[in-house]
Amino acid sequence: MLQNIRDNSQGWIAKTIIGIIVVLLALTGFEAIFNSAGNSRTAAEVNGEEISQDELNQAMNMQRRQLTQQLGGNFDPSLLDDKLVRESSLQALIDRALLLQGIHEADFAFSEAALDQLILQTPEFLVDGVFNASRFDQVIQQMGYTRFQFRELLKQEMLIGQLRAGISGSGFVTDDQIEAFARLEQQTRDFATITVPADTTVIEVSDDEAREYYEQNTDRFLSPEQVVLQYVELKKESFFDQVDVSDEQVANLYQQRIANLAEQRRAAHILIEADNSSDAEAKAKIDEIAKRVAAGEDFAALAKETSDDPGSATEGGDLGFAGQGVYDPAFEEALYALEEGQVSAPVRSDFGWHLIKLLGVQSPEVPTLESMQPELVRELKVQQVEQRFVEAAKLLEDTAFESSDLAQPAQELGLSVHTTEAFGREGGGSGVAANRQVIQAAFSEEVLIDGANSGVIELDPDTVVAVRVKEHLQPEVQPFDVVKGDIVAQLQRSKAAEQAREAGESLVASLREGVQAEQQWQPVEAASRNQEGVDPAVLQQVFRMPKPETNETPTYGSVRLPGGDFVVVRLSGVSEPNAELSEEDKQSYRRFLASRSGQQDFAAYRQMLHANADIETF
């Protein structure tokens, strides 16, 4: 347990902020905030700020998919309670809105310069260790963002992280609390168990019992609501065979490319932030730092000591390699005037005053026309294809809106009408039916109830579809013969578990009266709270049981396992630690307990926001 505390106490400190943000963006599902399809219905209002029904629907779809992935491929998503999923998703959106409002009222800020550095240094956006704009666009498009949307959400996540760190980091504990916790945590217990198995093989269930259960619980055997969709799919790739480029065009583009090949410069900087009111003070600080650099002090050490740029200060001011067009114009002009190893005079940018050092220069090799020709031909075609694709998508949008089916749009664009397998609100396993926007459109009132064609839906930057509902399969009670096997298995498990419970409770009563057990005890000596090889539910019960008064008078307890087995527990001894805590262990416990206290403080802050908020749900 102590090693776990040491590991966990590092928390967000041991992981880079960038990694946390990327994980959050990939998993939380809050991208629904930016991908609204314009639904005007309101799901909730938080202090006057609206959360749209569309945001809620997208968050629910994301949560369903995440639960399906976590619970495994054999899990039936139709078993999910839509009401619970809705409540959970809406609560998450409300929590986020309250936190952002609290951040705004507290005047938290995250500078654009720091945001730029986070993006430039994010490993997922680097190619060969250098920030790559194309890679950046590719990653955020896969997440479903534009550049502006990604920056805005990244800023919000960093602000929430600042708030959480500020509150959580204020937690503290006393020495007495540490020692008391350590005594409990390092306590070991001697116990033994007897398992009374829930044996389904000896349980018989009659047809009458199964049918009676079926008739009394018909609502449990409803088939999921499903739809069968028709759709037309427009792919950008299909236009490439329809356009041509000349050798002259390829040659001209090649000349442009090699003319535009620019060297990459590796800069380091020291930033003193400034605005109009603090400019003179900031200038004085940067001048003093410049004198220290000129006197021979190490630039990297000074950056760590004095720079206001949190993204690069810990790296000695190192910003990595980048080409032109990345930095502030004044910063870039000064950087490209330097020789390698040279430090600039103080430079004023929109962010404040900088000292800039050129750490290195990379000059790219010029590729041949032959090596670049396939790329150039495709780029030239892309320019033409993009225009045709946009025009065709607009035509698909217009004709789908005007038509009562998808036959006319398909005919005008030379496309085929495809049909999906039936799927529910959790979506299909792959293809069109797995796309969250398609699922949302399929179950929208306009498409599902009114029978209209959907608008154009972007599956990815190169593919769009329009859909309509071909068949709406309402939930209905499945025939008894279809579900009989599941009912019998359920009743067998239930009866076996009840028999095991009755036998186990009888055994516990006998043991407490002094009767010796006929079954063989399975002993465990000096078990800790994280003892390996012991069922967690059993271990939890062991450490909840009262300490025996003497070694000759054990205490007895029991626990029912999820599978139905019933475990009888005999606790025979409790050992307290004797040795004093080392300073290292004290610090590990202190960090762990302070972190837990801080997390509780953050939870209390969220509760306070809820208590003081005007929240209305619809």
Describe this structure in words.
It is a single chain. This protein has 618 residues and is of the alpha+beta class. The chain has four domains: 2-171 and 597-617, Triger factor/SurA peptide-binding fold; 188-202 and 479-575; 226-245 and 377-473; 262-362, Roll (Chitinase A, domain 3), CATH 3.10.50. Helices cover 49% and strands 17% of the residues. It has helices spanning 2-14, 17-27, 53-71, 82-105, 112-121, 133-143, 147-168, 175-185, 207-216, 247-260, 279-294, 299-306, 310-313, 329-335, 369-402, 407-413, 436-442, 445-449, 480-512, 536-544, 583-612, and strands spanning 42-46, 49-52, 126-127, 130-131, 188-196, 226-235, 264-273, 318-322, 347-349, 352-362, 417-419, 457-460, 463-473, 522-527, 555-560, 566-575, 615-617. The strands form five sheets. It has a four-stranded antiparallel β-sheet with strand order 14-5-16-15. It has a four-stranded antiparallel β-sheet with strand order 11-6-13-12, sandwiched between helices. Helix 2 (17-27) crosses helix 7, helix 8 packs across helix 21 (583-612) and helix 9 crosses helix 19 (480-512). The chain is flat, with a radius of gyration of 33 Å. Residues 1-40 have low confidence and may be disordered.
